[in-house]
Amino acid sequence: MAPRKRPETQKTCEVVLRPRSKRSRSPQELEPEAKKLSGKGSGSSRRHDSDGLWEGLASQQVPPPCSSIVKAIDQYKLGRATWPSLQQGLQQSFSNSLASYRIFQKAAPFDRRATSLAWHPTHPSTLAVGSKGGDILLWNFGIKDTPTFIKGIGAGGSITGMKFNPLNTDQFFTSSMEGMTRLQDFKGNVLRVFTTSDNCNVWFCSLDVSAKSRMVVTGDNVGNVVLLNMDGKELWNLRMHKKKVTHVALNPCCDWLLATASVDQTVKLWDLRQVRGKASFLSSLPHRHPVNAASFSPDGARLLTTDQKNEIRVYSASQWECPLGLIPHPHRHFQHLTPIKAAWHPRYNLIVVGRYPDPNFKSCNPYELRTIDVFDGSSGKMMCQLYDPESSGIISLNEFNPMGDTLASAMGYHILIWSREEAGTQK
């Protein structure tokens, strides 16, 4: 593989911003229209397959509104309500508010599809986005200044993973098909190369970072996982899967616990203090299909996995080997589509994922829309579906900001920012 020079940062880039000018309608309001315009999209399915472990998945009705959250907090302070009940009330209140979420900003800065998203850990209106061409955008959509744009190498430079440096948020880590895992700044400088491949057939597909233990972990397309410290020293490099490692995730509360997902149809859990070889995993979680992602919940007690066809799983720390529940959900893999990955809400037990309607899915109807679906992580029930008729493509990536009140989505070449309708008009 011939070495390629990293292009310098461009000071300006043309980003198309389109503030929302009119109210978007919900999937339920659009369904009659969709039946007439079946070529433009399809209506959301009204039920799921019945083979999940959770009962009640056949119903996607939004639960009735909860009582006043102010009253719930008051009851908790008076000792008349438990903390779990207060948390449930807060979550229900937020779930109800999702019905008012609309796209209030869009950007289309890339000439190839977006492949990764990362929210700034302390600036709730700032995120970084990577593309299949290796381009990187730092966008503070709360101000009118031109976003920072770093030009990639084009074909073969796909950004497969991105994390802000928790020790210096002016820097970020990336893994890429260029065959590197590195630390960069937003001036375009490469500060440190952690892993590199001299073979054009090997590249890096995922990464995660721990601030507490100062570790960087990355996985490649042939099944290897590499652990390094922040200084770039390699601690070990082992083949942990038979095929591509699509996702690596460190537990946010126990950063010695690592989850790795692979197209070999397994997710494996590892104790980093005891890794001796490919057979030293704590648990191996078999799946029916290749797996796109495995991510821990913010409290570290649950694990969320997304396969490449029609299943989302939730595992619990109390018994990793057996899934707490299965959510049937269409999100099939397609070569020219950024893999769909479900994600946790940072504050509530909610799961957000894009829908790719599949005619072979049992509960599919002919007019399904390409919605963003929000599920309750405990019951598996559908809480809300987000849809904008002007942005009706397949939405592969969805991430809430650390505050949990704004959602960023990647839809092909486009970046979408969702927020409550009244909040969006103020920004």
UniProtKB/TrEMBL annotation:
Location of this chain's protein in the cell: Chromosome; Nucleus
One GO molecular-function entry: damaged DNA binding
Annotated spans, Disordered: 1-51
Primary subcellular site in the record, as a coarse category: nucleus
PROSITE patterns associated with the record: WD_REPEATS_1, WD_REPEATS_2, WD_REPEATS_REGION
Superkingdom as given in the UniProt entry: Eukaryota
Matching InterPro entries: DDB2 (IPR033312), WD40/YVTN_repeat-like_dom_sf (IPR015943), WD40_repeat_CS (IPR019775), WD40_repeat_dom_sf (IPR036322), WD40_rpt (IPR001680)
Pfam families per the UniProt record, alphabetical: WD40
WD repeats: 238-280
Annotated metabolic or biological route of this protein: Protein modification; protein ubiquitination
Protein name from the UniProt record: DNA damage-binding protein 2
